[in-house]
Predict the structure.
Amino acid sequence: MAVTETPPETVETASAAAPSAPHPQPGGLAAVLGSGDHKVIGRLYIVAALLLGLPVLGLGLAFGVEGFEPETLDVFSSDVAYQLFTLLRVGTLFLLAFPLIIGVAMVVVPLQVGSRSIAFPRAAAASFWGWFLGSILLIASYAINGGPGGGSANGVNLWIAAMGLIVASVLLAAVCLATTVLALRTDGLSLERTPLFAWSVAIASIMWVFTLPVLGGMLVLMYVDHRHGGALALGGSAGIYPALAWIFRNPQIYVLAVPVLGFAADVFATASGSRQRMRGLVQGAIGVFGAVSFGAFLAIPSTDALDSLLVVVLGIAAVVPVLVVAGGALDAVRGSGSLKAGPGVAYAAAGILMLVVGTLAGAIGSIPGVLEVPEGSSASSNIFFLGITHAVVVAAVIAALGGITWWASKVGRGPAASSVGLVAPLLLLVGGIVMTVPDFVSGIVGDGVETQGDYAGGIAAANVVVAIGVAIVALGLLAAAVSLLPLLRRPDDEVPADPWGGQTLEWLAPSPPPVGNFEGELAVVASAEPLYDLREEK
Amino acid sequence: MFKSGSKFLFGLAAIGFVAAIAYAVATSDQGPIDSVLGPLTLGYKGGVGDHVGYSILVSLSFLSLFLGIFLSSLRDADPEAEAQLVGLETVPEAPAPTTANYWPVIGAFSAAALVIGLAVGPVMFVIGAIGLTITIVEWAARAWADRATGDPAVNDAIRNRFMYPVEIPGLAVLGIAGIVLAVSRILLALPKIGSYLVFGIVPAIFLAVGYLVIAKPKLSQNAIAAMLLVGGIAILGGGVAAAIAGEREHGGDHEEEHSGEEGLAPLPGPAELVITVGN
């Protein structure tokens, strides 16, 4: 008998067990380490992102304090300030914002498209563990005097390699998410009917797949260059961060914020209790926003890309799709004449407003001559772009926290606390604006350089306002964390499957959803709002 | 064949290409023929004006074309189209994984070891590479078996039948190698009398435990597992501790070795070795 042939006793067992009872689910540590359930993996992403990413924001606060009096108030010694500055930039993006968005998407997207699983569930699990271990190694590299500008060769090499592992893991997650939307939709759910959050995640994931390999390729070059004595002349450890700065500025930073639009569109349509009248336009706008967020061409430092008329036009145009989605949300509310206000709606409004601030600033910054470029600096080193990055990252974090709150009964065990949940997005929005607007002012009328010799940058008075903004954001995050605590404990009453009068399939799943997500077979979907159809039929 | 997703992308590809040509012509400072011929031939016969903007638009066009072809080949991956492709009324749902699979975690740890190896040295790199290789093989076997039938228990049986002939000898080799390495470190680290004792006691314990297992067939599995666990930890822990402590002084042996070297002409040190190359 061939080794791949199924032995007769196995066939008998299979025949006897064909209509078998459900396989016992692994429990305890096995349920965490060995799980392929997309909800478990998503929760792991969310918890780990909050644990690893929030301390990084503490760094931001410390930098803000140093900015009070850059010349006299040295929170960080000049030996480590540059390294910690890079940790702040990389950490907010890859340790907080990306994994938070991915975590929410991992839980929600398969539910929204009516799938019982995420595509490539084991790869999704590998993406989490790879990202998690890569993040720990990244932090460890700073601890041994590594990272950009670090003094330890091994530490710098470790930083580059750990970043490579993080990028590869994010790419793996993106492939899983995009494939889920493209290939695992339930019967009748065509691409046009795909829920807008799932659609936006698919667009964002595809853009990550298109642009992050450029970052990965650059990391390989840097590793080879640094390990083998600077043969490629990339500038050693000090040259690492400037070469990667393109991922932190617009338009590339917008790839992070595409799901903000989908989240806002979904929440407003549901809260207004009506079908999204401008759905086609909103869906198209999300696609366009994804397309204009392509910024990998900025990876070549010597290019004159920023002077190109098309880049200028695209930079200015990026605000249009955001305004279209905001208009679609308002139209949904106007069409129904009602709005069920709650924390989810507050988060959605705050997220899209913050993104409007970021993209509007991006549009202004793209106009030639608005920003003064100091002699010997590149255009990207203007502190104005730091403000844009912060605005977009805050928008993404607001949307991610909003997603956890809105889909709380799917992400956790029960609904989030609504009163504190209403305060959190407000604080995050106000803090985000207070934190970013001074950087815009500094960029236009100040000295303009993002990292001065004292690593504070900007106008000292404006930096005080930035620090206050960071403190408000930190307070907002604290409020959000408090509002999410009920997700951890089992509620006394049964949690309703659909607390908001939802329109899309995730609200058909029990709360919290079991393995396999749905009980029984799903009916064929006939519109973009299948649950709305069901209610109309009744 | 062409559904709305692919139609949209083909439209975008066409618009992108037309826009690229229009943009190239508008930003070109060449004559009318060259300014049109350049963008049409992707810059082969003439300039393309602002090459950054032109490249972005052409990239958009080609990327949309690629995605359009990809989506049209899948017919937007609409479930109805997929079902038609496999000749069924409805396409089977992708089942949720119900069993624990540790290979993603092991793979991630191996990748982390590889990353550390890239920074600090080849030993960790090799460990990571070996770990990743094992992960790939085991993961592939597992993925294959998970799709064999609809019953996880049967799938496990199929996987084990296929992989046990590889795994059990592999693990046995690793286990024996680990024990030999650990015991050898202990013997080298302990004083002479201690190493004689260990050399006698450890095999005696092995023999005693083996006899106990045979003589008491009703011995609970937990008791056997506990004994193996304690023994394993003792040997491995002792080995690690001994490796950290280093070998004992082998004074007498060195003298013997040196005495054996007597009469031999000393080799020159590296600094004394001079190689002269003449013309």
